[in-house]
Specification:
Structural class: alpha+beta
Number of strands: 22
Number of domains: 4
Strand content: 15-25%
Helix content: 40-55%
Radius of gyration: 33 Å
Distance between the termini: 26 Å
Number of helices: 20
Strand order of the largest sheet: 10-22-21-20-11-18-19
Length: about 625
């Protein structure tokens, strides 16, 4: 509980005690002078609502007249003038109780998402001139070595130079299972070192680190408003002055037309003002979205704003990249097939590994892993990577081609056409000779099948898989996962074109989400209504390009994000209908003289508290 909330609660309790004493005095001492009676209630009013009056007067001085503080001040001060001291103090007391509930709820919701702020490192232990010194994380440079002891947060991204340990990644991923790391393993800032001492060689400065990017994302999340929030903000801007004018007319016009009854009509107008305070909507709607964002962050799903949370609920088409999203992207060489008798499997694999040695693509890394020996870079030159085709490189004075069927055909080489379902790397050379092929297979993620099933259950109309892989591979993966629509052998530009086509096929209200690994899919992520990046832990491109980042490598969390979104939108709609319905009903009763100030208090404070408590349900989405 914050100091501000504790201070407010203390003031409300003291004021409530004074108010109770004032009521007892008025009951026990029937002949008490009116000015003592007034003074007792006035003291209680100042203690309880002095800050509200002060804020209202300050806002009037700034030209911000019509807000809830102004409405409460006018209503309660007016009640004092017509002699309803008890009700004036009661209205302010219950209003402040409602504000305490609101502050607590907002604090709890904010804590759920800003709990990620705990990943912010306080300092770094830097090795300088053979000694360990404590410095600010932004004073550490790339290549420096830092020491992280058990129980400390890892302040910067890097690679383990010395030691081994288990890392707690729960703040980033929502997963309770620790991750083991040893020498040469990459570690991410924001994780907590659990067991051993680690020496880490820094690979990124603090401003470019994972933790800095996530903190920036979280801090900016509340600035991107949903349509519902923007509507409520505009609604309150016009609604409040209209209500004040209506209340003034209610207090003045009937007595003039009916000839008297000023006190009764002023009382009705004051009740009208209390009822009409829009805080139930103004607070509960943003609180619902904030709760949804917080609930998602607990699950390791970072959503960059309420607008994207709202859009997830209307997702009609989900387009998914295959590699790194539905499959692990951990490619392994499963077959090496030379096309000529004078070349062995080892020689073919060596040529492929040398040609691909400068590429960071997962397939290239799998070839180097299968080769298993150190590459002599001095015999490699003129390396050219052709997107969507493969690699051309000079290896031992031979121009080697390593890539797909398109690359071979473009070079005038006739490749083999194997029936194997996997990624096939054809090897050829500038003499026109076809040297053979290497089969590489990718393993599907364990929850990929359930992810597709959950999306269908969640009401997604179409699920489409896009891949640059061969038709046979795409057909095999799609068949296992139950995906009926897929497109294979696509270049990066083709994926954007496919998404553009799918945009034309969706309904006006429906949204299109693209799910990719965030590394090679930035153009498509940016083009979709909602770009969703998988495996954001350690992926700068994912955090920057996507609107939603699933920190773990679990595609099943996509359906969970949609469920959170729909539950949040459901809560928002419930609060809007409930708040407006009750207020309109009680406003009509107050105008007709059938609702007292106590009913007005319920219509304002009671409705606000109920709406806030309902909004807090968004924090718990299971």
């Amino acid at each position: 509980m914050s100091k501000k909330l504790k201070k407010r609660m203390k003031r409300v309790i003291i004021g409530a005690v004074i108010y109770a004493i004032a009521i007892l005095l008025s009951v026990w001492l029937q002949q008490i002078p009116w000015f003592i009676h007034l003074t007792a209630f006035l003291i209680a009013y100042v203690v309880i609502g002095g800050d509200v009056v002060k804020k209202a007067l300050k806002n009037i001085g700034r030209g911000q007249v019509f807000d809830e503080n102004f409405l409460m001040m006018i209503a309660t001060v007016g009640a004092f003038f017509v002699g309803d001291y008890k009700e004036a103090v009661a209205v302010m007391l219950f209003y402040q109780v409602g504000e305490c509930f609101q502050s607590y709820a907002v604090g709890k919701s904010r804590k759920s998402i800003t709990g990620l702020m705990d990943i912010r490192p306080d300092s770094a232990n830097l090795c300088r001139d053979g000694e360990w010194i404590t410095v600010e994380p932004d004073e550490v440079n790339v290549g420096d070595v830092i020491l992280v002891r058990p129980g400390e947060k890892i302040p910067l991204d890097g690679f383990v130079e010395k030691g081994s340990s288990s890392l707690d990644t729960m703040a980033l991923t929502g997963e309770s299972m620790p991750r083991d790391v040893a020498v040469c393993d990459e570690v991410i800032s924001g994780c907590v070192n659990k067991t051993g001492v680690l020496e880490i060689k820094v690979s990124k400065i603090y401003g470019q680190s994972t933790v800095a990017k996530i903190l920036e994302l979280v801090e900016n999340a509340s600035s991107k408003k949903s349509r519902a929030e923007n509507f409520i903000t505009k609604f309150a801007r016009y609604y409040t002055p209209i209500v004040v004018i209506c209340a003034a007319l209610l207090a003045v016009v009937p007595p003039i037309l009916l000839g008297g009854g000023w006190s009764e009509w002023i009382y009705r107008a004051l009740s009208f003002l209390v009822i009409s305070c829009p805080c139930a909507l103004v607070i509960s709607i943003p609180l619902s979205f904030f709760g949804g964002l917080g609930g998602a962050s607990k699950e390791g799903i970072l959503i960059k704003g309420s607008n994207y949370l709202e859009a997830l609920a209307d997702t009609e088409i989900v387009v998914m990249d295959k590699t790194g999203t539905l499959t692990k992207g951990n490619f392994e060489v499963s077959k090496v097939v030379p096309a000529k008798e004078d070349i062995t499997q080892e020689e073919l694999l060596e040529l492929a590994a040398y040609a691909e040695s400068y590429s960071n693509h997962p397939i290239s890394k799998s070839l180097l892993t299968a080769y298993g020996r150190e590459v002599d870079t001095s015999i490699i030159s003129d390396v050219k990577e052709i997107p969507g085709h493969g690699i051309v490189a000079m290896v031992k004075d031979r121009e080697i081609y390593a890539g797909n069927e398109k690359l071979m055909i473009s070079k005038g080489i006739s490749p083999a056409l194997p029936d194997d379902a996997g990624t096939i790397i054809h090897i050829g050379e500038s003499t026109g000779a076809y040297l053979g092929y290497i089969l590489i297979e990718d393993e599907m993620k364990k929850d990929a099948e359930s992810a597709i099933s959950d999306l269908k259950t969640a009401g997604v109309k179409r699920i489409i898989m896009l891949t640059g892989d061969q038709q046979k591979v795409a057909e095999k993966v799609a068949g296992k996962l139950g995906i009926s629509e897929f497109f294979a052998e696509l270049l990066p530009g083709d994926k954007v074109d496919k998404v553009e086509t799918l945009f034309m096929e969706k309904s006006e209200k429906g949204k299109l989400a693209f799910v990719g690994d965030g590394i090679n899919d930035a153009p498509v992520l940016a083009r979709a209504d909602i770009g969703i990046a998988m495996g954001g832990l350690g992926s700068d491109a994912a955090i920057e390009a996507a609107d939603v980042v699933i920190m773990t490598d679990e595609p099943s969390k996509l359906a969970r994000a949609m469920k959170i979104s729909r539950k949040t939108l459901g809560i928002v709609k419930q609060n809007i209908v409930f708040a407006i319905g009750i207020k309109v009903l009680v406003l009509l009763l107050a105008a007709a003289g059938m609702a007292s100030m106590w009913a007005a208090v319920f219509a304002d404070v009671g409705v606000a508290v109920i709406a806030i408590l309902n909004a807090m349900r968004a924090l718990k989405c299971r």
